[in-house]
Every structure is written in structure tokens, then in C-alpha cells.
Design goal:
Layout lengths: L12 H73 L6 H16 L9 H8 L9 H38 L5 E4 L5 E3 L1 H11 L8 H44 L1
Antiparallel strand pairs: 1-2
Length: about 250
């Protein structure tokens, strides 16, 4: 029996090159496909972060706008208190005003409550690397620094606020206040105050003018801290508006 041996011709260089190129392009295309999918996933995450950040900023703006109006009320109350204290004689309307504006000074909530959900996610998940627009990252950083400065001012303001409250405890009969009305303002029970006046001969815990002047000083100091806090609030509003505008421009692209 004859055995036929098949001859194996060595591959030409061109065939090796073709096989190499086919393998190279297969690996390259696989790599590019994976890279593109990862890129698209990160861009979706970036989009979600920016949308969420915009919502947080708008919530901050709403809170700052409301608190800004309340700060105006508080500052006006402080001015009225000082004006009345330095009057030589007080009428019944002055006494009522002193009571109501004093309680207004310590029951108006003006501290800002910033939304932190998105910024916390960006920090904890390393999400800042996903935001490609360096201008947005810079603005976010600037906004966060503003929040930190406001927090420092807020703590100093609350310390002065507590002193105002302490002085009120030396001057006011706090049991003459009624329940807050629908707008949240506390009412004065004049009948209760008249009863106290008939029993003690005076509308306050003391008639010492120097104590009232001291109270006025604390009120004025507190007003100063509130006024500066309000300025910082307005500056933060501006930063929020600029950041929202920048993000919305980015989301359009």
C-alpha cells in the first residue's frame, strides 16, 4: 500500500501579517467597544449628578429666599426694641410692641438648611472625576466654601442670640404669650399682662433702665451678626444662580 504524504507549504509573510492584523483589530475593537460603553455609562452618571445638583441648588435658593425675608423681620424687630427702650416714657402700645418684638427676636428661624445629598454622593463615590467641565467643579468648590463660612458665622450668631434670650428672661413675663396664629406669629395675651400689672405695679420683671439698656446692647450686637449673615446669604444666592446657569448650559450640550 502506498502512503501519500500531504505536503505542508510554509505560510507566507503576507498570510502571517493578515492573521496578525485580524487578531489585532478584533482585540482593538473589543477594547474600544468596552471603553465606549464605560464612557457612555460615566456620561449618564455625570448627567444624573448634574440634574440632582441643580435640584439641590434650587431647594437652597428657595430656603435662602424664605430665610432672607425672615431676617428682614428680625432686624426690624431689633430696631423697634432699641427705639422703644430709649424712649423717655412708655405707653401701653410701646409695652405691647416691646413684648411682641422681643419674642419675635428669638422665635424666627433664620438658619439656612443647605441640601447636601448630591455633594455627599460626589465626595463619597469619587464622583467629581466624572464632571468633565472644570468650570462647574470650580463653582461647586466655591459654593461649598461659602457654606462653610456661613456655618462659622451662624455659630457666632447663635451664641449672641442666646444672650438676647437670657436677657429676655430677666425682663419679660413669658406666660403672657398666647399660641402662634396661622402665620406662625405669637400673640400677646393683654388680659394676662394687665393682671400682672395690677398685682405687681409694673409690666416687666424689673423697672431698672440700665437692665433695659443692656438688653438693647445685646439686641444690637445680635442685629449686627444677623445683618452680616444676611449679606453672606445673598452672596451664596448669587453663587447658586451662577452654578445653576452653568450646569443647565452643560446639560443642553
Amino acid at each position: 500500500m502506498e502512503v501519500h504524504h500531504h505536503s505542508h507549504h510554509p505560510k507566507k509573510l503576507k498570510e502571517y501579517l493578515q492573521e496578525f492584523l485580524m487578531l489585532f483589530f478584533a482585540v482593538f475593537l473589543g477594547f474600544m467597544s468596552e471603553y465606549y460603553l464605560e464612557y457612555r455609562a460615566e456620561r449618564h452618571k455625570e448627567h444624573d449628578y448634574l440634574v440632582s445638583m441643580t435640584k439641590d441648588l434650587k431647594a437652597d435658593l428657595d430656603d435662602m429666599h424664605t430665610k432672607d425675608q425672615t431676617m428682614d423681620e428680625l432686624l426690624l424687630s431689633g430696631m423697634k426694641i432699641t427705639s422703644i427702650i430709649y424712649k423717655p416714657n412708655w405707653e401701653d402700645s410701646d409695652v405691647d410692641s416691646l413684648y411682641l418684638n422681643s419674642i419675635n427676636m428669638v422665635t424666627r428661624f433664620i438658619t439656612l438648611n443647605f441640601s447636601s445629598g448630591t455633594i455627599d454622593q460626589l465626595r463619597n463615590a469619587g464622583g467629581f472625576r466624572l464632571i468633565l467641565n472644570e468650570g462647574i467643579v470650580a463653582k461647586i468648590t466655591e459654593y461649598e466654601k461659602g457654606k462653610q463660612l456661613i456655618q462659622v458665622q451662624q455659630e457666632a450668631m447663635m451664641e449672641r442670640w442666646s444672650k438676647v434670650h437670657h436677657m429676655q428672661n430677666k425682663l419679660l413675663h413669658l406666660n403672657v404669650f398666647g399660641q402662634p396664629d396661622r402665620t406662625g406669629k405669637i400673640t400677646l395675651n393683654r388680659d394676662e399682662l394687665n393682671k400682672i400689672i395690677s398685682q405687681t405695679g409694673k409690666a416687666f420683671l424689673t423697672s431698672d433702665k440700665n437692665t433695659f439698656y443692656e438688653y438693647s446692647n445685646y439686641v444690637n450686637v445680635s442685629k449686627g451678626y444677623v445683618a452680616f449673615y444676611q449679606i453672606m446669604c445673598k452672596m451664596q444666592q448669587q453663587k447658586a444662580q451662577e452654578l445653576i446657569k452653568l450646569i443647565e448650559q452643560e446639560l443642553v450640550h
